[in-house]
Amino acid sequence: MGILVGTSTGKALKVVDAMPLFHTHALAPMLKIACMLIEEHCREVGDLEIVGLYHAAASGVPDMSRVKPIADKIAANFPAACVWAVDAAKLGERQFALRGMCHSKEEWKPISADAVSLGDEALQHTSRAISELKHLEIVDFDDHLGDASLSWLNASLFKGDALAELGPADLPQTGAD
């Protein structure tokens, strides 16, 4: 599970970074500390805020129920919040493997597959990074709590990788309200 940070122009939501938090269940005190640090990071970077979260279940089924209370808290502070769940069945098919929900008019609504586009280049590089097991190098907030020398910001994770060079047109875009 992790937090998404980005910007909003009213009609468009732009997610610019994902902050990995926990690879196990989230405990409220640690989640609160993590969110405080992320908010501080957003202030330091400037013009960013917490806009949503992402998660994956061990079962591989994209179900929002276990993160709904956290998503509701994010939506209370950012009304256009989004939640993205990993759909493990699509990972092996080299398809866009996320299912999204957006907060609109006090309820969570699915983001249709038609509203999301992903450039071929982004899909290729993401598939390559997964096959290279690059995800095993990710440091989450949980790891940082165990060893403070590890940075949960992962600033150098894709340094020199073609994924870092992709522009906004190559990344996932949504037409959600």
UniProtKB/TrEMBL annotation:
Determine the domain of life of the protein's source: Eukaryota
Recorded hits in Pfam families, A to Z, give:
UPF0172
UniProt-listed InterPro entries: EMC8/9 (IPR005366)
The UniProt entry's GO CC annotations, sorted and at most eight, read:
EMC complex
- UniProt protein name: MPN domain-containing protein
Which organism is this protein's natural source? Zooxanthella nutricula
